[in-house]
Request: fold
Amino acid sequence: MSESSPTQEQAAAPEPAKEKERLFGLLDLDARFDLTRFRLIRALLKSRWMPLALILFNTFMFMIILVATLLGGFSAGNYNFGIMLVWILWWVLLMFVLVPVFARAWCLMCPFPIFSDWFQRRRLINIGEEPKKPWGLNRRWPKWLKNMWLMNVLFLVTTFFSGFLTVRPFATFVLLGSVILAAFIVGLVYEKRSFCLYLCPVSGFQGLYSQFAAAEIRRKDDAICKAHKKKTCFIGNEQGHGCPWLLMPFKFEKNTYCGMCLECFKTCPHDNMAFNLRPFGADLLVDTKLESKGLDEAWKAFIMLGIAVVFYLGFQGPWGFMKDMIRGTTLPGFLSYIAFHTVFCLAVIPGVFLAFCWLSKLASGNREVPLKKVFTGFAYTLIPLGLGVWVAFSFGIILPNGSYLLHIASDPFSWGWNLFGTANFPWTPVLTGYLPHLQGIAMLLFYLFSVDYGTKLARRIYPEPAQAKRGFVPILAALTAVTFLFLWLYMG
Amino acid sequence: MKQRETIALGLMALATVGTLAAIFGYERYRRATQFDVVLIARAPEYGNWDPRTITVPRGQPVRLHIRNIDTVSHGFGLPAFDVAVREIEAGTATTTTFTPDRAGEFLFLCTVWCSERHLEMTGKLVVQ
Reply:
């Protein structure tokens, strides 16, 4: 028996309690508050009208948006209902509340897949006996595309046209129309919510940032799931559909691909699904065989950061020539913008980050840890920071432009309506004097999350605490540099 | 159960077809009862006045509804009948009323310097 082998006595002894990880040293990362303990919420989550009622409401809203963007033509973005609802209100709600607090709550109420869902299921709300084979070709999504890469590319390509989308109603009409059509066509060919999972341009960043969210849907008790041999949450039953997002609700650990459709609340015969509130960012530490950290998610984090820089320079910065490039004033300028944007997001940012990761490995003194593991692992520190960048950016959208919402609510098609008496409400910037301060506070707050999770991720990447400490120093420098860059951009 | 599905489908029809019907129905009613002519204002490079020619009967009041769907302000001037709307801000609409008391063709124009091609932003009022 070797010296390191445990004796029988040692083996019989209980394992020492694993030290609980705490956010900022205070909040237990395993702490959960299950909202289904309230009867009303539980009933709501189990009702078949939820989330259909929200989806129908948003279908109604999107009909108005589509009409407004179609009739709005090529001009007057700030007075267009579609532009204001989508690029100001929806975007800000997404970044301020929906994603950071409620994860993929938008996917829960998104109306885009309603037509393909209806076609596949042949029913809108009822379940009845599940058809043996849903309508449509019901093909499986190719395995090699079961990741975020396509969404990364599609979202990046969408941002090429941001200079048109945000000011030209018809451009937004084309985008939304294409997404709705694509969701339907993909639903005819591929099974369930394949479009939402692997193609929808806004699904990717919601999935990425929902890892930071303060809410999650999870099983309550592992043992109940293990004992329940018929996995109704996955295959469906008379109460609900099998997970449309092709997840296994009885074992998934991350928010990334959970569209919060609530079907598992309905199909679980043991009421074993929970809608938890939790500490921010708990998923950032998850790295299981089923839901491993990957380069696709890492690149999504880089792309989101890069887009934020480019958007700031183009939309909120004082450089007129950049606005001209983004708005396509000249073709060479527009093509230069696309080239710069693509290289910056896909190569420059990842390249710089890779250099810091190499320094991290060097500083740690550990030569065994693969650089890819360091790179992928630490990329997740950019999730809180990236979200902070977007929260700060969103302040710059809503405070100067929010008052237009009052106008467009009363006169959604610029036809001279005055439904609520606010059609003549003048443009009124709100608290714009405090804008840089709010942006600065948001940046610093999310920076602290990044640093805290960075230290925890370092301990997972490097086996020895001393190595982790040394290895985190270059990453800390990178996070600090990014924060200072944005503080400089936002605050001058 | 069947009733629930019917209600859901009804709500979906209401959210889609019903919304479209309500939007266009209301606007059609409004135009029929409140205006005689709807004029769209855009800088010449984005479409100019639409329509460029308006035909109205002589001696009857004309309720002219002007929608500025541009990104810049426009104005409306019809010098022959002393009609002037000083500024119609981007994305807003305004209504003006006048009575053409003589037949002929008359110029109307934008009165706010709206683009490099501002001087091309003109149209024709035909009074019959």
